[in-house]
Specification:
Length: 579
């Protein structure tokens, strides 16, 4: 019953007769339903249990968030000094880079700077170059002379050395051999030349020791070498400092990463500020815990679209599930026991109300066990032919104002209403039928001045199916009185079937050409179980659908209805054949 309401987003309040009924309703309605009562045996399905669970969850979440933020801030506190040191090391590393670049640039400029300095005769380097030129002038002259003599000695030594080699080797066929043989004391001459050569070479070495490089370059190259050496020492020291700083910085950066912080120091600082803000916000939220709990509880309770309470529940109107939000619809079970005070107590919860109860007249009746539900109205219940509840006058007044069926019992009469009572302005005039005095037609004048048959009354013993046939035959009263909705059964004929009691029986009634109604008695009233349309009489599915819509339209405008518990016939064919 309540599934369509939930499907359309309605929030429904059901007031059950007692706690057992409420618990059963919640079980039937499924996870969308909750009990509006203190926690008990079914504590997990009560509003108070939800409030307790949400409160515990929120408190746990707050404690967890606080611990998480505190732990993160502790990490920030531990890492912040490391980041400060990394910043200092980065500055020092940048300075070391600048020093290295400066020394490299200065080293590259040393040769040109020295030569430019030497080009000025008045500069110390220029004066040193001039003095070096004068001091080396004599030495260079002597060196050139010795070198010339050494060259001549080498030229004289070459043939003698070849003769001595041929003689030692015994190469008798060579000219050098025979020159050595006939030249006299060539060995002594060779020894003398070797001694002179060695002496000249030693003299050159001695002069070269005094003149290491050309005289005009000695002071310049020496100054370049001196300056390069000093610059290289400074550059090496700067590189060592930079390497040491980089190693220390990488170590600190790795330590920061081990604490779970990635990115730059600016990102770290921004995250640190954000963490502080989160802590402050959390502390403010924790101080306003009641407001947060109230909002969380309301959100949780609104997930339950069906709230079930009881008429005797204490503190009902202040239950968390009741006050969470307004209800779209109110359903009151056992509404036949309502008095005016009870109705006033519950009716304010929703503008749309569904009252369910047993409004059976308090006299034993002979029929099968039935249970019925009334759309936007009431529920009817009988057990073993006896009414099971006592309806209050207040509830019965509501029932009578809402339930105005086309067929009803009136004292000892079965009555079919043809015209809505509100349209009749005059008292009804009763006239029995001449051939059937047990049947009377009641006439009245409408608000438009028309004099019409308003009702037909039959004696109580008059069979309902015959009453239905007479109304259709004499006055064209073909409105159907089914329970529920129809479904089609097609087996050579078009048959619309409705739910009906098990093993129900009844005759078929001719409504018009090609249309017959299977009528069964329910509480002594005619009930439509099926309608058959004969294709041979020109009926098809579309025409049959239109006929059913037209003759059940009155059922969609009433505010109350009786629906006995029935089942759709699996195979109405035997009844059709019997009819």
């Amino acid at each position: 019953m309540y599934a369509p309401l939930i499907h359309h987003g309605e929030r429904v309040l059901i007031v059950a007769a007692d706690e057992a009924c409420a618990i059963r309703l919640v079980e039937l309605c499924g996870p969308n339903a909750i009990l509006a009562m203190p926690a008990g045996e079914h504590s997990e399905r009560t509003s108070h249990a939800v409030v307790a669970a949400v409160t515990n969850r929120i408190r746990t979440e707050i404690a967890t968030r606080h611990a998480t933020i505190a732990e993160r801030l502790a990490k920030f506190a531990a890492v912040a000094p490391i980041w400060d040191r990394v910043a200092q090391l980065s500055a020092a590393h940048a300075a070391a880079n600048v020093d290295c670049q400066r020394w490299m640039a200065e080293r590259d400029a040393i040769p040109n700077a020295v030569r430019a300095d030497a080009a000025h005769p008045d500069s110390p380097l220029g004066i040193a170059c001039c003095n070096a030129d004068a001091a080396n002038a004599d030495k260079t002259t002597r060196r050139a002379k010795i070198a010339s003599e050494l060259h001549k000695l080498h030229e004289e030594w070459k043939p003698i050395a070849a003769q001595q080699e041929a003689k030692k080797a015994g190469r008798v066929l060579s000219g050098s051999f025979w020159k050595a043989v006939f030249s006299g004391d060539s060995a002594a001459h060779a020894a003398e030349l070797e001694a002179k050569i060695h002496a000249a070479e030693q003299a050159l070495r001695d002069i070269d020791a005094e003149i290491v490089i050309p005289a005009d370059c000695t002071p310049i190259e020496a100054e370049i070498a001196r300056r390069l050496s000093a610059c290289d020492a400074e550059l090496s020291a700067a590189n060592e400092r930079r390497s040491a700083i980089e190693i220390e910085r990488q170590h600190d950066t790795s330590t920061i990463a081990e604490h779970g912080f990635l990115g730059t120091q600016e990102t770290f600082a921004s995250d640190h500020v954000e963490a502080h803000s989160a802590l402050l916000h959390h502390e403010r939220s924790a101080t306003d815990l009641n407001a947060e709990l109230a909002a969380a509880v309301r959100r949780e309770l609104l997930e339950y679209r069906i709230v079930v309470g009881t008429t005797n529940a204490t503190n009902f109107t202040h239950d968390p599930a009741i006050v969470a939000d307004a209800f779209t619809r109110l359903a009151i079970c056992a509404a036949e026991t309502l008095n005016e005070t009870d109705y006033a107590r519950f009716s304010g919860f929703a503008a749309k109300q569904l009252l369910l109860g047993d409004f059976t007249p308090r006299v034993p009746v002979d029929h099968q066990t039935m249970h019925g539900t009334h759309t936007n109205g009431y529920t009817k219940s009988h057990t073993n032919g006896k009414a099971v509840a006592q309806a209050t006058d207040f509830a019965m007044d509501h029932w009578r104002s809402a339930y105005q069926p086309s067929w009803f019992h009136e004292a000892d009469r079965l009555v079919v209403r043809l015209v809505t009572p509100s349209l009749i302005q005059s008292p009804l005039i009763c006239e029995p039928l001449l051939d059937k005095p047990e049947v009377e037609v009641r006439f009245g004048t409408t608000t438009q001045g028309e004099y019409l048959p308003v009702e037909i009354a039959f004696a109580t013993a008059f069979p309902p199916a015959e009453a239905k046939a007479l109304a259709a035959r004499e006055l064209g009263e073909t409105r159907l009185t089914p329970n529920g909705t129809w479904h089609w059964h097609e087996n050579g004929r078009l048959i619309a079937c409705w739910p009906m009691p098990d093993k129900a029986t009844g005759p078929w009634v001719e409504l018009e050409a090609g249309v017959r109604e299977w009528v069964i008695a329910t509480d002594g009233l005619p009930t439509t179980a099926a309608v058959s349309f004969d294709p041979a009489a020109g009926w098809n599915r579309d025409k049959a659908e239109a006929y059913l819509e037209r003759n059940t339209a009155h059922l969609r405008t009433i505010r109350a209805i009786v629906l006995p518990t029935m089942t759709a016939p699996a195979n109405p064919e035997p009844a059709i054949i019997a009819g």
